[in-house]
Amino acid sequence: MPDLAENHTANEKRIWDHWVTEILKAKQTLENNLCNLFAIVMSLCDSDTKNQIENMTEYLDVEAELDSIKLLVMIKQLIYTSGTNDLNKSHNRAMAHLNLMNLHQDRFQDIQEFRDQYIALKKVCVKLGLRFGRCKEPALAILKEKGTTEPSKEDINKTLNKLGEEHHAILFIYKTNRTRYGKYLQQMKNELLQHKDPFPKTVADASRELAGWDGKGSDKDNTKQMMQTME
Q1: Would you call 42 exposed, middle or buried from its count of C-beta atoms within 10 A (0-12, 13-18, 19+)?
Q2: Distance between CA atoms of 139 and 67, rounded to whole angstroms?
Q3: Rounded to the nearest 10 degrees, how much is the dihedral formed by the CA atoms of 130, 134, 137, 138?
Q4: What is the predicted pLDDT for the residue at 221?
Q5: CB–CB of 218/179 below 8 Å?
Q6: Spatial separation of the C-alpha atoms in residues 180 and 210, rounded to whole Å
Q7: How far, rounded to the nearest angstrom, does the alpha carbon of residue 142 sit from its chain's CA centroid?
Q8: Of 72, 81, 162, 228, which has the fewest beta carbons less than 10 angstroms from its beta carbon?
Q9: Would you say residue 158 has pLDDT above 90?
Q10: Could you count the other beta carbons within 10 Å of the beta carbon of residue 124?
């Protein structure tokens, strides 16, 4: 709320009154929108999710206040724990790992949409304490190659983060649809055999690179070309 000086003029008082009125209007609009959001979010939940939310101890208070933010937090908790809350954290981590490993791009799914889907599951894993590709020995070896024989904790963590991002970038590429990106993946493998380092270093970079892939030489095109050659 803006302050009004004690020795204000009549014009300053009118301006202050206008500001206060606009702020109160905006506050009321925001509160109404958040209340409407509560109903919208609940309507988008499937029956199982609704039942799980309604059975949570804090739901009655959240519903009484139509607290949309708290509702989203509750849904987020269900996602992170595979709907079991904190009954068995080892089970939650295993399910998050399994969901990530079972994820593959659909034939007609947009690459950016698949990227967002992959990153969402990756965030769930990180939230549950699952970190992939962050191995200390390779990180120390990389730092040693760069001449850092006595790395600080910050140096190690920075290198571990890069290794983790690269690990996910490679996984992401292997999980893309082979009909669309099989030739791209084969190209990466061929460059590995030539002792190159072709893979993008982050999921975002991999997604951008694949989005620019023109599809020439895909597995489908390869088969067609071979059949034409044999005729």
Answers
A1: middle
A2: 45
A3: 150
A4: 45
A5: yes
A6: 10
A7: 28
A8: 228
A9: yes
A10: 22
pTM: 0.64
Answer for the pair 128, 86: CB distance below 8 angstroms, yes or no.
no
Q: How confident is the model over 95-121, as pLDDT tens digits?
A: 889 989 999 999 899 999 999 999 988
d(CA 112, CA 176): 11
Asked if the model's pLDDT at residue 155 lies above 60, the reply is yes
75: left (phi over 0), alpha (psi -120 to 50) or beta: alpha
Higher pLDDT, 174 or 52: 174
| Amino acid of residue 152 | S
Query: What is the per-residue pLDDT for 202?
Result: 95
Q: Which residue has the tokens 């698949």?
A: 114
Helix%, strand%, coil% for the chain, nearest 5: 70, 0, 30
pLDDT score, position 147? 93
Please report, for residues 26, 46, 99, 173, the alpha-carbon distance to residue 126 in angstroms, rounded to integers and kept in the order given.
37, 25, 13, 20
What's the one-letter identity of residue 92?
N
Mean pLDDT of the residues in the chain: 84
CB 208 within 8 A of CB 202: no
| Distance spanning both ends of the chain, measured CA to CA | 80
For the chain, give the longest Cα–Cα distance: 95
The span from the CA of 111 to the CA of 117, in Å, is: 10
* Burial state string for 14-29 with b = 16 or more CB within 10 A and e = fewer than 16: eebeeeeeeeeeeeee
